[in-house]
Amino acid sequence: MFGEKRLTLILESTEIRALVVQGQRIRRWERALLPEGAVRQGQIVQPKAFGEIVAELVDAVKGPRRRAVVGLSSQRSLVRILDLPPVPTRLLDETVRREARRELPLPLEGLYLSWQVIDDRTASGVRVFTVGVPKEIIDTCMVGLRAARVRPVAMDLKPLALVRAVNLPNVLIVDLEKGNGSLTLVRDDIPYIVRSIPLSTEESGWIDLIVSEIQRTLEFYHTTLSASLPAWTVSLCLTGALAEDERVREQVGSLWPLVDPAPPIPVPDEFPLLSYLGNIGLALKRLPS
Predict the structure, then answer these.
(1) CATH classification of 168-260 is 3.40.350.10, yes or no?
(2) What is the rounded CA–CA span in Å between residue 281 and residue 151?
């Protein structure tokens, strides 16, 4: 990051979290509540109110509006790893899009699709990591950001930002926020599984739901992926505002080993790490030069 000042914004179902870093130092952080119903299934439905809140929040943390990185939840977004045959570089984008059209359950025309080669030395050809985000989710977010005079230089999904911030090569990241959570299974620093789960803490049994979703994710991994990857002793890292709930840590920790995140930048003693790990991951994102 080399001394640059960067503003990061994470959009949750009920609030926005802002963090400003300079170089590898965390300078300021703050959060602001959103009006009830402002976000539905990951999409901003009140962009004007969202923009006003973002403007006040950015002023509060004195963040650079032209150097912002924005993180969205993974609700309704699609993450896939595609194994492609050997193909010339000039045809790779066309090949990725053709294969994504076959693999993704939503029409490609309604998605913003991004991709990155993660392995070009596989026996069969090329392995590509793809992300598809519904266009209306990004478009409505941009309406509010423009109203706040914030110009993002990049956007990301929060689960992918958490992979960078947690900084553990083999782990199941369980992100728990009011209204929504996610499960991201990481092997050799690659997020092979990314799932979004609804979380209503007002309903009884919400912790049991988390346990059930963790079990489902691990079962899917063992039946579809584990045979092709090195052996792994399952460990979980809890993140998000609800990860501080001792009831969650006790119940989940009684079933699986829990590990702490290991962010690669210094963290102030008073810093609420679990709530702002997504922001740290955005601060670590490599940007186009």
Answers:
(1) no
(2) 19
